[in-house]
Structures are given as C-alpha cells and as structure tokens.
TrEMBL record:
Name recorded for this polypeptide: PQQ-dependent dehydrogenase, methanol/ethanol family
Family from the record: Belongs to the bacterial PQQ dehydrogenase family.
Binding site for Ca(2+): 215, 297, 342
Co-factor note (free text): Binds 1 PQQ group per subunit.
PANTHER family for this protein: QUINOPROTEIN ALCOHOL DEHYDROGENASE (CYTOCHROME C)
Organism: Komagataeibacter swingsii
GO terms, molecular function: calcium ion binding; electron transfer activity; heme binding; oxidoreductase activity, acting on CH-OH group of donors
Database matches in PROSITE patterns: BACTERIAL_PQQ_2 (PS00364), CYTC (PS51007)
Annotated positions binding pyrroloquinoline quinone: 95, 147, 197, 213-214, 277, 369
Entries under Pfam families matching the protein: PQQ
Span of domain Cytochrome c: 634-713
C-alpha cells in the first residue's frame, strides 16, 4: 500500500475540515498532487489530496460523491455558465459518471463507447468503440446504457454491453487486454441474457464487475480480474447452483449450506437461473478491507413460480461482503426476502462515519428500490436502523432488531393470486441515480421517485426465448389507456430530491420535481447540490434548504450523475445528458407528458464565467409519413399481445413516441408488410440495435404487430 499504510487516514472528518479551510483561504490552488501512474489505489484512498480529479466512480472508495471544491458556491453561482459541450454520437440513454485524471476526462456513452476529452476545453483526445454488435441491444432490459469506466495505474477499464471487460491505455485508448466475463456454461443462448451496464471498480489490483439479465433469465455473479493481465482471480455466485453442486468458486460453502435451503428445489429458478444479478453497485472499503456488492431481483419475478412461494431466496436483494483478494464470504444483509417486486439492492452503496449512540461508527448507508433507508455496520453487516424514505405498501415497516421487513400479505400477489397495486413499483423508490453526502451538512441528498406498479401473477409460466420472463400475467387491455386515463395515472407519479438525515433517519427538506427518474446528485464544499432532471434542466440547489439557485436548459432529459473537478484555478461541473434508460424507453407517452424529453446526447461542462452556449435543436428529428389508411382490428388485437411480449420495454408501453427510438406510428416501415418483416423478422436494422425475431414469432404474428401499430397511430396521432 505504499507510502502511507494507514488507510483510515483519509477518512477523518478533521482532514476534510482542514482541507476545506485551506481551500477557502485559496491555499490549495493547483490541481493537487498529480496522480502517479503507479499508485492509483493510494491516490483513491487519499482522494482529498487530489481534489481536482475524479478518480473512481463515486470519487472516493466511500462513494460519497462529495467534491471538496468550493469556488462555485451560493455567492458566485450567478457567474456559472456553460464552459464547453461535446456532442455524443449515440442518441440513446446516457448514464455515465465521467472520470477526470490529470486534466483528462474519460467518459463512456451508450453502446459502451469511450471518449477521452481535454477536461478544460472538451477537445477530443481519442475515442474507442468496442463495436458492440447491435443484435445484443434487445437483450438489455433498460436501454443500452453504460455507467462509466474504472481507472488504475495508467489503464482504463471498460465493461461492454456484450460482456467484455477491456483494459485500455489511458494515453491513446489502445487495447491492452480483453476478456469475456461470462463463463461458457452460464450462457444458455437466448434464454439467459447477460449484459453489462455498470462501471467496473478496482481495488487491491483487481477489477470487479458483475452483469444484468434477471428480467430475462440469469444466474448472478461478480468476478474479479487481475488489473495487469486480465486473468480471472475469483468469481462469487449470488444464488445457489441449481443442483446444489460446487461451482469451484469462493461462494460454494455459503451457497450450499446457507442459501440453498432458502429456495424450493423444484421452483422455476432451477431453469431460469434465479436472478440476483450484480448490475450496478460494487464498493471497496479500505477501512474494513472488504468489498460490498448489491444483489438484484429474482428471476422470474413471481416468487410463487420461482420458488413455489417458499424461502427467503438468498442472496436476492442483499448486500454481500467479501474479501477483495479471494472473494471469500464475510457477511450478508438481505433487504427484501421473498422478492416479487423487482426490488433490487443494486443501488449505490455508500460508507460513512456517523455519530450514533454517542460514538463514531463506520457504517454503510443504502437506499435500495424497496423504499427503506438502511444504516448497517460496515464491518459486520449488522442492522443499525431503517426507515422508509418514500411511501411503501408492500411492508408495514422493519423489525427494529433485525431489519427484516414486516410484510403486507396483500402485496404477495404471486402467492395470493390477487393483483396488487404496489408502492414502490419496479423502478424503486430510488433507482440508478447517485445519492451524495456532504460532511458539511451531514445530509444524504437522495433522488427519490414514485412509480407504482400493478402486478398480477401468471398462472402458468412459459419462458420466451427473446422476451422478458417475469412470471406475470401481462394481458392486452381491452383498449389502451386514453390520454385522460394516463393523466389520472400521472397523479401517482412523483419525483423529488430529499435531503435525508442518516442519524435521525428523517427528511430535512425535499424539492418536489416534475416527475420521476431524475438524475443523480453531487454535493460540493460550496454547499451546493447539483442535479439534472428528466424534464431537461440542470440545477444547483442550496445544500442547506434546497433553494433552487441555478437552472439550465439542457434540451434533453438527464438521468446521469454529475461530477466536479479542477484544472488550474478553475472548478468545473460536468454532466452527461441523454434521455433514455428504463423509464425513458418504457413510460413513453406517460413520461413525455411530464417532461417532454427528446434525446439530444451531450457532455455539458459548467464553470464560472463560461462562454459556451448550446445550438438550437429540433424536437422532431424522426422522418414521418402518415400511417396506412386502414388496419384489421382482429389482427391488431392479437398484435397487441405480441407487442406486450416483445416490443414494449424498448418501444414503449403504449406505442407513443418515447423521444429516444424512432416513432413507430410514423415509421415508413409500417407502410408495407414485407418491409416490416424485413426489419422485425429478418433483422434489417440489427446494426442499430433491432434484432430479428423470426425465431420467436411466426410471420403472421409479426404482421399482427404491424396492424396493432397502425391501430395505435389512428388512435393517438392527430388526424390530418
Ligand atoms: O435485474 C437486472 O439484471 C437488471 C439490470 C439492469 C441494467 O443492467 O441496466 C436494470 C435493472 N435490472 C432494473 O431492475 C432497473 O430498474 C434498471 C434501470 C436501469 C437503467 O439503466 O435505467 N437499468 C436497470
Ligand atoms: Ca431488474
């Protein structure tokens, strides 16, 4: 561990305070100590010696996403303007947290592409495109997003949508090594669909990465690769082997002895993999020398089908702690046993030192999808406290001793056989948007949302090779919701930024926003909280009371999380812009009624006295043609079921334009049966992410989708 071996040093509150004072007095004006190519681990542990950089996903290993820079503050905010922007070459959801190392910004975009930009000017230094095959686009649940890179000793680490982990030379983007992160026996073709959207984290010379896929069928795991060579060091599976056999992995003992008995041996999980994908948060904690990772939802969602309604199903929806060198199991805490609501625990894991019960304790704070804010002991995983931060109706609360939820039996739709309108819905009370902690206010700035879900369990389970496999009863409604009905549903939609006191477990203030699915938060020593919203605006709120001090028209919904850095004497704030992700693609008309967002993907960077401005954009970039004059109502009804099975999660719940993918109702492709089949059946547009479906649907089923789209065009487009 080099020069200073005490990893705790960088965590003292005192150091933060001293640094703030020095920064305030203008005594630390340069970009800080340059990051030596040989000591990234030390540099990350002592990130406050490098306040101008953003070295790892959450800036520090604690992932507090707090910047000690304070040039931009409530007094100077009036001078904050756009300093530069960079147009991205993929107009899809953009979710990356950029890294900034020694004056260079490294970011990723949709389709797992990498851009290295001069962080002061936005000039492109180099770009790398891993050439992800467009065909795999349909394998992701929630857009072809990527959340960012890892940096370690002069190398960058990129995890691609098609599951490669690639080491790049940070000087020129040349590939140093590339490995497939999926073991061959885990990939059962179209049925199990692994993809990667998350950012790799690096600790003790190992690159850590998981994957997604639990909506299709997958068995989750996290892998550790040697940062120098790409050799696999260990792999930890998150759900048991279906035959309860060893995988020859460090997870073997705990899965065989403790997890397997929590699953019904004859549930559908045995074929579907069980889920538990580690698709986002992975955190190394130098204080405990442990790696914590968040485990995702069950596959299929229906607990009745997945596990015959029996057992807790470990380690679904848990935080698991392992040793970084070996992957050896240390502890776990399960937040949602018996999951049937897609309540992933993959949301950002943050470590903190908090004054609790008269002493400082080193804790994990976590706000997973299930709507409860947890404080856990970081060394042992012991439950300290928990409180709901949004309205919840799946549980009546948490057991004050164990933290186990007290279930609402009515919410167990897959066991009762009765539908249930659940809060939070599958988007969670908190989703992919980063939260941020300011040691100056003691508050966690948490993007929250309310998107309830109407869930009805299927009686029979027939997995579809290319479709979502949730075990839900998803039927075409007699008719699609009218705008009036949609407006009524909108009343239950909500989004806000909550300033949460993790000691008192309560909100200190809340800014209610136009709708859900907003971007992540960044707190700074200037006592500002930056956040981008799905309505296409970027804000700076006062960290003390939430007062909106700055608003910028970013022209497109923001779902990513901002960073701050410094070059010379100048502080910058950067945000990647680009509407999409799960809500952007799926909620379509509903989402756009609230926000009107259309994708215009860019990196935006702000600074005091910035002089850049955005060009005007057109919000209807899709070439449009009027739909065919007539359609066959019976076929259209059949097509609505096919559309629900195969199309809605990307093209939207009601065939209204989502602002990201082409508007199908206006597409020239629906003019003619054969051209439609060439695309949907044969994959004529697979290069752009639209795979062929002829192996899943018969030609007349594909034609029925076309009929349905025409019907929806007649119902929803203004008549000429
Ligand atoms: O279960 C999974 O494997 C999985 C993967 C992903 C993903 O990789 O993006 C998401 C989810 N689940 C999910 O439940 C979810 O709400 C979600 C939102 C997003 C996004 O990027 O907007 N990804 C995912
Ligand atoms: Ca999921």
């Amino acid at each position: 561990m080099g020069r200073r071996s005490n990893p705790i040093r960088g965590h003292h509150l005192f150091n933060l305070r001293l640094r703030d004072v020095l920064l305030g007095m203008g005594m630390l004006l340069c970009a800080g100590v340059p990051v030596n190519a040989e000591s990234t681990g030390d540099a990350i542990i002592h990130a406050d010696d490098h306040p101008g950089d953003w070295l790892t996903h959450g800036r520090t290993y604690s992932e507090q996403r707090y910047s000690p820079l304070n040039q931009i503050n409530a007094r100077t905010i009036g001078r904050l303007h756009l300093a530069w922007h960079y147009d991205l070459d993929t107009n899809r959801g953009q979710e990356a947290t950029p890294l900034v190392v020694n004056g260079v910004m490294y970011t990723t975009t949709a389709w797992s592409k990498v851009k290295a930009l001069d962080a002061a000017t936005g000039r492109l230094l180099w770009a790398y495109d891993p050439q992800v095959d467009g065909k795999v686009g349909v394998r992701g649940c929630c857009d072809i997003v990527n959340r960012g890179l890892g940096y370690w000793n002069g190398k960058l680490y990129l995890a691609t949508f098609d599951n490669r982990l690639i080491a790049l030379d940070s000087r020129d983007g040349k590939v140093i090594w590339s490995v497939d992160t999926i073991p061959t026996d885990a990939d059962l073709g179209q049925q199990r669909a692994y993809t990667i959207t998350g950012a790799p984290r690096i600790a003790r010379g190992r690159v850590l990465i998981g994957n997604g896929g639990a909506e299709f069928g997958a068995r989750g795991f996290i892998s550790a690769f040697d940062a120098e060579t790409g050799k696999l060091d260990w792999r930890f599976f998150t759900v048991p082997n279906p035959h309860n056999r060893p995988d020859h992995a460090p997870s073997d003992t705990v899965l065989m002895t403790r997890a397997y008995p929590t699953w019904s041996p004859t549930g559908a999980w045995v074929r579907q993999g069980g889920g538990g994908t580690v698709w986002d948060s992975i955190v190394y904690d130098p204080v405990t020398d442990l790696v914590y990772f968040g485990v995702g939802n069950g596959s299929p969602w229906s607990y009745g089908i997945r596990s015959n309604g029996r057992g807790d199903n470990l380690f679904l929806d848990s935080i698991v702690a392992v040793k970084p060198e070996t992957g050896e199991y240390v502890w776990h805490f399960q937040e949602t046993p018996e999951d049937q609501w897609d309540y992933t625990s993959t949301q950002q894991i943050m470590t903190l030192d908090l004054p609790l019960g008269g002493q400082m304790r080193h804790v994990i704070v976590h706000a997973p999808k299930n709507g409860f804010f947890y404080v856990l002991d970081a060394a042992t995983g012991a439950f300290i406290s928990g409180r709901n931060f949004v309205f919840v109706n799946w549980a009546k609360g948490l057991d004050p001793k164990t933290g186990r939820p007290i279930f609402n039996p009515d919410a167990q739709y897959s066991v009762t056989g009765k539908p249930f309108y659940v809060f939070p819905g599958d988007m969670g009370g908190h989703g992919i948007a980063a939260m941020s902690y300011s040691p100056r206010t003691g508050l966690v700035y948490l993007p929250t949302q309310q998107v309830p879900d109407h869930l009805k369990g299927a009686r029979k389970f027939r997995p579809l090779p290319d479709g979502w496999n949730l075990g839900l009863d998803i039927q075409p409604d007699d008719k699609m919701p009218s705008i009036k009905e949609q407006k009524a549903a909108v009343r239950d939609l909500r989004g806000s930024l909550v300033a949460w006191d993790p000691v008192a477990q309560k909100a200190r203030w809340e800014v209610v926003q136009k709708g859900p699915a907003n971007g992540g938060a960044l707190a700074t020593a200037g006592d500002l909280v930056f956040q981008g919203l799905t309505d296409g605006t970027f804000h700076a709120y006062d960290a003390h009371d939430g007062k909106d001090l700055f608003s910028f028209d970013a022209q497109s919904g923001i779902i990513a999380s901002p960073v701050s850095y410094r070059i010379g004497r100048r502080q910058y704030v950067a945000i990647e812009v680009g509407w999409g992700g799960s809500y952007g693609l799926f909620a379509t008309g509903l989402a756009r009624q609230e926000t009107g967002s259309v994708n215009h993907s860019r990196m935006l960077v702000f600074a005091l006295d910035g002089r850049d401005h955005l060009p005007a954009v057109s919000d209807d970039p899709v070439p449009s043609s009027p739909p065919p004059a007539s359609f066959m109502p019976r076929q259209a009804l059949a097509g609505s079921q096919q559309y629900l099975n195969y199309c809605q999660y990307c093209h939207g719940a009601n065939v209204e334009w989502n602002g990201v993918l082409p508007d199908l109702r206006k597409s020239p492709a629906i003019q003619d049966k054969n051209s439609f089949y060439a695309i949907v059946g044969k994959g004529a547009l697979s290069r752009f992410g639209m795979d062929r479906f002829e192996q899943s649907m018969k030609p007349d089923e594909i034609e029925s989708i076309r009929q349905f789209i025409i019907e929806r065009a007649h119902q929803t487009l203004p008549q000429p």
